[in-house]
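Sample entry (331 residues):
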Amino acid sequence: MNTDLAPRHLQLRDQLFRRWKTNGIRAGDRIESQNEIMKFCDFSLITVIKTLKDLEADGIIRRQVGKGSFLVRAPWAEAHHRVGFFYNRDVVGGGIFNNEFYTKLVVQLEKAVVSDGHEFILGSFTNAKMPMAVWDALDVIVLTSITGDTNLDFLERASSQVSVIDQTLIHPKVHSYRIDYGKAFREMFAHFDGGPLRVLYLDSEISSNEQRLRREAAQKACTERGVDCALHMIKVNQEMGLGNVDLLKDALVEHDPDIVFGYAPSEWTPLIQDHTRRDTKIYAYVLDSDRPGFAVRTEEWMETILPVIYANLEDRKAKGAVHSFPAHFQP
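Predicted structure, serialized as tokens:
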């Protein structure tokens, strides 16, 4: 419905629902009086009175003389949830289904949400522009590929629950569902327990908290391996395909690594093999794959994520948190 064309009392109802949803109002909580509503809305007293009477008639609020008005049920928090997954088109420029990692992630998320009896919506945003009208109509938005260039002002305006996946975003309203690669990196180094190692880590040039945390975990794991571990790092853009690999070629020749790991799309494997020794190992970030690397099974990951998302919908005042899921090393 176009709210600009809707009757005034329906416009106010939608405004109240959005306010209560944003503030985490639950059944049994007290809501604003008609005088308090008049202070923050642009509607007449007649419209406010009619709206409250309609909400009472629909069983949404209960009005008690001398005590105030209370929410009886929250239409925006019914058992059927609308879950949206949105990716950053400025990062994943070719679209979500041209990216092997994100394709597997979104397919499993959709499968799990629909199997739970809920609605799944797929969309995108950019660093500067978010589809707020769409997001406000959903119960949960799950975002990915947020970078240091993404405008996060929307967090203060979003009425839906905000989650980020394969990311770490510290914010009181946001739940982050990240993959922890620290243990997997240590497992990789333990797999090569004899003699010195020359290691090349492919770090993403797309800056984000997650990119930084992965780099720091790689550095820490190499340091723990000991002084015979020589770690070199270069920045790559894993979203650009084979269009920007000159620096990678030079680094492979210069450092002659025993191990190449990190942001290494499968399409880069032949190039890396062409510029290294036959016994050089390549380990990438992988989902649902037998390819050597740091692996996560998305079905298991979703089984840990979705119960938390659903629980937070029951308690919309739940404070943000970071939830980690461990990857394992796949030789």
